[in-house]
Write a structure and sequence with these properties.
alpha/beta; 201 residues; 6 helices; 5 strands
């Protein structure tokens, strides 16, 4: 008797950069001005802007998408099946994500070094190749040069402005990429989140 083929669970994925997405230049300047600490003492969760995190959290809940870290911050995490946070200085950041309903599902590979040409794009492409269950995906990043020339990743890319970070307009574009037809743009009015809509795509 032929064994029934297991049905693979289909998933939607958000590839998440952090700097320039969940924070912005003004926020970083304010935080770094208050801290003169070593990396071992520094609480990296302070670098996360709570309004940007709230915006992402609502988007994750509405779409049901999994969050995969493509940021250089990914060095602080391992696959969720192992140890969620490998690096002590990232623990409070992981706890902050969890508190806001965001669980880091996975990270892109570090085998492709960040300084290689088109590194981030190739890291994302490698992850997708190993996860055929991914039906839709979107990439949040403030830098596109290492992504846009790899395959068709540019069709899934939402570029944020590092001066403002993630904003409502980014969310609107991302919702269309994930084909989330029931997503209501008005839920993310910039007045509500006090986030400027000044982004170039």
């Amino acid at each position: 008797m032929v064994e029934e083929e297991k049905v693979m669970e289909e998933i939607k994925v958000i590839f998440l950069d952090i700097d320039g997405v969940l924070n912005f230049k003004g926020h970083l300047e304010d935080v770094r001005g208050d801290f003169c600490l070593t990396d071992e003492q520094f609480d990296k969760s302070e670098l996360i802007n709570r309004q940007k995190l709230n915006l992402l959290s609502t988007f994750v809940k509405m779409t049901g998408a999994k969050v995969v870290l493509s940021s250089s911050w990914r060095v602080g995490w391992q696959n969720e099946k192992e140890i969620p946070v490998a690096d002590e200085i990232y623990k409070k950041t992981d706890e902050l994500f969890e508190k806001n309903g965001i669980r880091i599902y996975d990270t892109t590979t570090s085998k492709i070094r960040d300084w290689n040409e088109n590194a981030r794009g190739n890291q994302i492409s490698d992850w997708l190749e190993h996860h055929p269950e991914t039906t839709e995906y979107v990439i949040f990043d403030d830098t596109v040069r290492d992504i846009e020339n790899v395959g068709n990743l540019s069709l899934h890319l939402v570029q944020t402005d590092p001066d403002y970070g993630l904003c409502a307009e980014n969310i609107s574009v991302a919702s269309k990429i994930l084909r989330n037809s029931c997503f209501i743009y008005s839920l993310f009015s910039d007045d509500e989140f006090d986030i400027p809509m000044a982004v170039n795509f």
